[in-house]
Amino acid sequence: MGYNYRDLGLTNTKEMFAKANKEGYAVPAFNFNNMEMAMAIVEACAEMGSPVILQCSKGALKYMGADVAPLLAKAAVDRARNMGSDIPVALHLDHGPDLETVKTCIEAGFSSVMIDGSHYDFAKNIQVSKEVVDYAHQFDVSVEAELGVLAGIEDDVKAESHTYTNPDEVEEFVTKTGVDSLAIAIGTSHGAHKFKPGEDPKLRLDILKEIERRIPGFPIVLHGSSAVPKQYTDMIKQYGGEVKDAIGIPDSELRKAASSAVAKINVDTDGRLAFTAAIRRVLGTSPKEFDPRKYLGAAKEEMKAYYKTKIVDVFGSEGAYKKGSL
């Protein structure tokens, strides 16, 4: 059984991106894999008055089911409204691999989709992206595509090397595909193991500035933008876990991008780290605990608290809409 996303209380991303670009912030795009994560995300955003995009990768859909994810998104919308908040909520397919996956998600109730043709050559990327746009726009579903390649690993998305987006290609790509937003590669990286300690990650803001000049006012997206917070990698190791030492993208670099043309910033790894660290802490300090509500509840609250800080420090989206409270 499928749904029209509007019947679930969801919105596409067009208006929220226009508002974000006009007011100089970025919309948080947080990945989720279960009910606790979805509630952590929407409660954090509702309390802060921030718009939000709930994201599902193909791996998350396989885990939850494409029929379940939209209903969790509806529950998230209902939670925000019950908190007295009017924040817009979108449900987005992250790194959609093909048109068939896109069709499945739109029929299930997704309001936004990404087609990732970045591993193809330029002409083929345009072709596959336009096919998705032509289909999705029939249902007023917004479409994101990607130009350039991010290194790293995220679920089924893997790349050994990084290829910066070529500003000379963006205008032609956007014009020929008709996409609603464009993910670019300017120095971010997928996964938890982005950079080694001692490195000083910097975004190629000069490339971003040139892209903004070529397609003024067009919504830009940054993937792979987790900070890999040390407090959570340390906590995971403290309570028996193993995480390689790594650092992510500094919040200060992302905030510069968010105040420019970047309308959407993706964060997945940070949420996973916060969630896992809290579970390990509960089980490590209370070895007799076997009530899932105790450790999953703690994980939800940790993830929520951390994302509230990100909304201020990275996205700058606090107060863009009416704030709510539990």
From TrEMBL:
Residues noted as binding Zn(2+) 1 in the record, renumbered to the chain: H95, H190, H223
Active site residues according to the UniProt entry: D94 (proton donor)
Pathway this chain belongs to: Carbohydrate degradation; glycolysis; D-glyceraldehyde 3-phosphate and glycerone phosphate from D-glucose: step 4/4
Keyword Zinc set for record: yes
CDD domains: TBP_aldolase_IIB
Catalytic activity annotation: beta-D-fructose 1,6-bisphosphate = D-glyceraldehyde 3-phosphate + dihydroxyacetone phosphate
SUPFAM superfamilies hit by this protein: Aldolase
Function: Catalyzes the aldol condensation of dihydroxyacetone phosphate (DHAP or glycerone-phosphate) with glyceraldehyde 3-phosphate (G3P) to form fructose 1,6-bisphosphate (FBP) in gluconeogenesis and the reverse reaction in glycolysis.
Protein name per its UniProtKB record: fructose-bisphosphate aldolase
Organism field: Fusobacterium hominis
